[in-house]
Design a protein that fits this description.
With 470 residues, this protein is α/β, with parallel strands linked by helices. The chain contains 15 helices and 25 strands. Strands 1, 2, 3, 6, 14, 15 and 16 form a 7-stranded mixed β-sheet that branches. The chain has a 7-stranded mixed β-sheet with strand order 19-20-18-17-23-24-25, sandwiched between helices.
Length: 470
């Protein structure tokens, strides 16, 4: 039975779990990572702090499990980048986090190429993706070393190899969507044509070995965190979708093995590449979900996220909030958007504001759901959800109400690492299918719409008007 150490390296923390082949949790450890939010839209992380969180969490999880692990896998942030020295592995810059908007001007200068970029990569020309950040590093920080996504650096520190996986590469704006290979013309467009680039490997590949967590173990099953959650939630058929509620909210829908571009303002990328076949997905992002809750904590509206349902009022009292605290993602792609609150009166309470902000997060998710429905040619019949904010009943009910869709809550807090663990099992067992590698599950709770379709449509129309104004 394969024992897997999965490292879920996220924006605000690193989680490590050790699981058996049947999904039994043997060890768990978490370490915080503290992003720095800078003027001008900058968001950075300390690479050494992040690496220490990976090593510490991984070693603690293995120690708690009390058993050696066969394979180590990493689920990564996807679009976070840094410069580093390939000879020593030492970082040459801070990590530039996926939320960072400082490459917006660079993208603006390339606006005439946006259609070409979209046709080749499936992505929108936006600083959310990794290539603009890599180019920004080269122009503003250092010309030394290599510039890569964070996963490549972490794998190098663990194994000495220089690789990235197909899902991460597909989030770059410089990878051909159909061939899943670096595109020389697009690299030149971003001024990255002379860069040393990592090899792109499939998600079921063994890429090396490491002894960083005890005895020697294989390293493989690499994947972006959101795609890992799509796998864990068993969204293996076209039209099946999930939304992860973390620092942001990320909705992904399986679109099958054809590299079909979105016509609804979503991004198309690789969902996974296994057994010689590539599966694709469309996705959209709400930039601030848990980060909006932390903002409410700073203002004193709530003490912790656990207080949301206690503080939230039964309704918003006519208040409409657009919590675009870091801009608006898909389908708007407006990093310059700002947050707004409308409809307040002297009778407005903190509870009304909390409810309005939660409804504002839900409204963005509902817009993503509608965009997915346009791409699929049919509405979503259900949405599977995971992440810490799924514990907030007010938010989950708002999502069900505004989407007019059943919401199924994933029973584990570890969707991302469990999805990556499935790929790691496939890496060690060439005869194992993806369906068989996934641990079966049933939702812990399901939410059905309590609002009428007319009420939901009316709210979304008023909310959309506020979003356009933002």
């Amino acid at each position: 039975m394969t024992t897997v150490l999965t490292i879920d390296q996220g924006t605000s923390g690193t989680k490590a779990i050790v699981v058996d082949g049947d999904g039994t949790l043997r060890g768990l450890s978490e370490r915080p990572v503290r992003p720095r939010y800078l003027p001008g839209g900058g968001v950075e992380q300390d690479p050494e702090e992040l690496l220490a969180s990976v090593l510490d969490a991984g070693r603690a999880a293995v120690s708690a499990a009390g058993v050696p692990v066969d394979v180590v896998t990493i689920a990564n942030q996807g679009e976070t980048v840094l410069a580093w020295d390939p000879a020593t592995g030492q970082p040459l810059s801070a990590m530039i986090v996926w939320q960072d908007r400082r490459a917006d001007e660079l993208c603006g200068a390339l606006a005439e190429h946006k259609d070409t970029v979209a046709e080749r990569t499936g992505l929108v020309l936006d600083p959310y993706f990794s290539a603009p950040k890599l180019a920004w590093l080269r122009r503003n920080v250092t010309r030394e070393g290599v510039v890569t996504t964070s996963d490549c650096w972490l794998v190098h520190r663990l194994t000495g190899e220089f690789v990235t996986d197909a899902t991460t590469a597909s989030r770059s704006l410089v990878t051909d969507l159909k061939t899943v290979a670096w595109d020389g013309e697009l690299l030149d467009l971003f001024g990255l044509g002379d860069e040393r680039l990592p090899a792109i490997v499939s998600c079921d590949a063994v890429v090396g070995t490491t002894s960083a967590f005890g005895g020697s173990a294989a390293v493989g099953g690499l994947v972006v965190d959101q795609q890992a959650a799509l796998i864990a939630e068993n969204c293996l058929r076209p039209g099946e979708a999930k939304c992860t509620f973390g620092t942001g909210a990320f909705l992904l829908a399986n679109t099958g093995t054809a590299a079909t571009l979105s016509t609804a303002g979503l991004a198309t990328s690789v969902a996974w590449q296994v057994r010689g076949e590539t599966t694709y997905c469309v996705d959209g992002q709400v930039y601030t979900a848990a980060s909006a809750v932390r903002w409410m904590e700073q203002l004193g509206y709530v003490t912790t996220a656990a207080d949301l349902d206690t503080v939230a009022a039964p309704d918003a009292g006519g208040v409409i909030a657009v919590p675009a605290l870091a801009g608006l993602g898909a389908p708007w792609w407006r990093p310059d958007a700002t947050a707004s609150v409308r409809g307040m009166t002297l009778s407005t309470t903190v509870g009304n504001l909390v409810t309005a902000i939660l409804q504002g997060i839900a409204a963005q998710v509902a817009e993503l759901g509608s965009a997915v429905a346009r791409d699929l040619g049919r509405p979503l019949t259900r949405l599977r959800v995971d992440g810490g904010l799924t514990r907030c009943r007010t938010l989950m009910q708002s999502v069900a109400d505004l989407m007019q869709t059943e919401i199924e809550v994933y029973p584990s807090a570890h969707a991302t690492p469990l999805g990556a663990a499935a790929l790691a099992r496939m890496a060690l067992d060439p005869g194992l299918s993806l369906a068989d590698a996934i641990v079966g599950w049933r939702p812990t709770v399901a939410y059905t719409p309590q609002w009428s379709a007319d009420r939901a449509a009316d709210f979304r129309a008023r909310w959309s008007a506020a979003a356009e104004a933002a």
